[in-house]
Amino acid sequence: MTNRPQLVIATHGFLAESLAETSKMIIGEQAHLHVICLKAGMNLSIYQQNLKEIVEQYIEHGVLVMVDLLGGTPFNTLISLLEDERVSFVTGVNLPMLLDILAQPDTASLQEMTEIAQRVGQEGIKSKKDFLQI
After folding, report:
1. Digit-coded pLDDT (tens) for 14-59
2. Which of the four CATH numbers 3.40.50.300, 3.40.50.510, 3.40.50.720, 3.40.50.150 does domain 6-132 have?
3. 3, 10, 32, 86: which sits with the fewest CB atoms below 10 Å from its CB?
């Protein structure tokens, strides 16, 4: 494993697994990508403990956690970890955001990866009027 920041996708349902599998299909296996899913009926305290353990396991390299919803359980679980400068997050994880982050060189810092994820997430949302200039 390199010293690059680790990437954790933490979502409700199977979204994290699906995003990871789809990214693997497009750009191949990524050793620095980890997923944790909050599945229906799962014990919340066990999920929260597992997410914290994943973050703490890789914290020495820095960890960018990409969550689906601001205010959801995956995000709320991170609150206690955010005082550590080696932990960052972005909300609204999506495939373009993930692919762009995975394509970053091993030299990318946690701050750079966080800024790129946020920018790509914001710029990637388009509608018909953006193309037709209505």
Report:
1. 999 999 999 999 999 999 999 999 999 999 999 999 999 999 999 9
2. 3.40.50.510
3. 3
